[in-house]
């Protein structure tokens, strides 16, 4: 049974996914042991989890693509589950609209993306065609989204302990830290000692590298939850076309919407992708009306409503949205860029 404390705990970990229970206890009004037990239950039931992935925007290399997939009749679920096993595909969603599936794909460079699309994705039986948009830059991404269970004072108390010393920006090649990020992808709250055992690094090195990666933004930690916690809201991707002269203005305003989970400048069928979380379809219609009032020349090219999420940032989900497995995200599978591909 999900209650208000569960909702507050998940939202607290959206503010800081690795915050110690002792720091969350005061703002949430319960003792650390209770929070630890609650999280263990939510995680074991697949109702909440913390994951991790590299930020293509911050590491300065690699790219992200949003790929629409059309499937042959009766093959949608089969294709979705086949694609969910690919380490380059971070997320797989079954959607309405002009496509059957929406994929979020990570790649080292355009050549690697083309190879993955042509040689692996398009080789999956049941796919009719694909359409790809490249993400130029992300103005808002999913880790910043909040369920609204905490007030502003609680969020400030959780965000960062007083007197925190900022760490220098990470200067290593991102491949050097990929094993660390993949381990955290499976369990974003994994203790430092266990991370050291998984990666073969000293615990002190793990602490330092993790702090550097977080402070530099090269690594993203994110807390997600099942529909039992989130209340089954509607997820909608809007493909938007803004006039070139108003693109920056539109992007900044869209990224600031409370319903926005992701907002990116894209190159493809439209120049903006806006991923919204709404409670009902009429709310989407009101938002679209607000968009056109704010920016009259803004055009909605397409709407993709998520019917089921098969994979979310590496996490494999059941039909009812609970986590049941993890496929490490790797933009450089089998050596990729390191082999010179």
In short:
This protein is of the alpha+beta class. The chain is 36% helix and 28% strand.
Q: Terminal Cα separation, in Å?
A: 50 Å
CATH superfamily: Lrp/AsnC effector binding domain/regulation of amino acid metabolism (RAM) domain
Could you report the average pLDDT, rounded to the nearest whole number? 91
Order of strands in the sheet with the most strands?
Answer: 2-4-3-10-7-9-8-5
Percent in strands: 25-35%
Q: What's the SSE pattern?
A: HHHEHEHEEHEHHHHEHEHEEHEEE
CATH topology: the name is: Alpha-Beta Plaits
Q: Rg from C-alpha positions?
A: 20 Å
Provide keyphrases for this structure:
13 helices, Alpha-Beta Plaits, globular, 341 residues, 8-stranded antiparallel barrel, two-stranded antiparallel ribbon, 12 strands, alpha+beta
Please explain how this structure is put together:
The protein has 341 residues and is an alpha+beta fold. It has a single domain, classed as Lrp/AsnC effector binding domain/regulation of amino acid metabolism (RAM) domain (Alpha-Beta Plaits), CATH 3.30.70. It has helices at 4-15, 21-28, 32-44, 56-59, 76-83, 110-121, 152-159, 178-186, 192-199, 203-216, 227-230, 247-255, 281-294, and strands at 48-54, 63-71, 89-95, 101-107, 127-140, 219-225, 234-241, 260-267, 272-278, 299-312, 315-317, 323-326. The strands form 2 sheets. Strands 2-4-3-10-7-9-8-5 form an 8-stranded antiparallel β-barrel, surrounded by 4 helices. Strands 1-6 form a two-stranded antiparallel ribbon. A hairpin with a 2-residue loop joins strand 10 (299-312) and strand 11 (315-317). Helix 2 crosses helix 3 (32-44), helix 2 packs antiparallel against helix 7 (152-159) and helix 9 packs across helix 10.
């Amino acid at each position: 049974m999900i209650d208000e404390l569960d909702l507050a705990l998940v939202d607290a970990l959206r503010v800081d996914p690795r915050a110690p229970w002792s720091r969350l206890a005061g703002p949430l009004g319960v003792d650390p042991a209770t929070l630890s037990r609650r999280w263990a239950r939510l995680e074991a039931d697949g109702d909440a989890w913390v994951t991790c992935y590299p930020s293509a925007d911050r590491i300065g290399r690699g790219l992200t693509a949003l790929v629409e997939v059309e499937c042959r009749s009766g093959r949608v679920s089969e294709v979705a589950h086949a694609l969910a096993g690919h380490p380059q595909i971070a997320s797989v969603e079954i959607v309405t609209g002009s496509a059957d599936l929406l994929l979020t794909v990570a790649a080292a460079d355009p050549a690697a993306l083309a190879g993955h699309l042509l040689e692996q994705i398009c080789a999956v039986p049941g796919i009719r065609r694909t359409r790809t948009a490249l993400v130029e830059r992300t103005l808002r991404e999913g880790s910043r989204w909040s369920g609204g269970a905490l007030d502003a004072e609680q969020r400030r108390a959780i965000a960062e302990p007083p007197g925190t010393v900022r760490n220098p920006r990470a200067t290593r090649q991102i491949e050097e830290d990929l094993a660390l990020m993949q381990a955290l992808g499976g369990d974003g709250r994994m203790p430092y000692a266990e991370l050291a055992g998984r990666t073969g690094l000293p615990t002190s090195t793990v602490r330092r590298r993790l702090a550097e990666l977080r402070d530099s933004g090269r690594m993203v930690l994110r807390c997600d939850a099942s529909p039992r916690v989130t209340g089954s809201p509607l997820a909608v991707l809007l493909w938007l076309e803004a006039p070139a002269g108003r693109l920056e203005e539109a992007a900044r305003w869209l990224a600031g919407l409370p319903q926005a989970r992701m907002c990116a400048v894209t190159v493809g069928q439209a120049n903006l992708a806006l991923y919204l979380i709404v409670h009902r379809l009429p709310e989407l219609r009101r938002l679209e009306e607000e968009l056109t009032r704010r920016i009259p020349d803004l055009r909605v090219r397409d709407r993709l409503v998520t019917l089921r999420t098969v994979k979310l940032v590496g996490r494999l989900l059941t039909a009812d949205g609970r986590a049941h497995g993890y496929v490490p995200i790797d933009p450089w599978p089998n050596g990729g860029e390191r082999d010179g591909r």
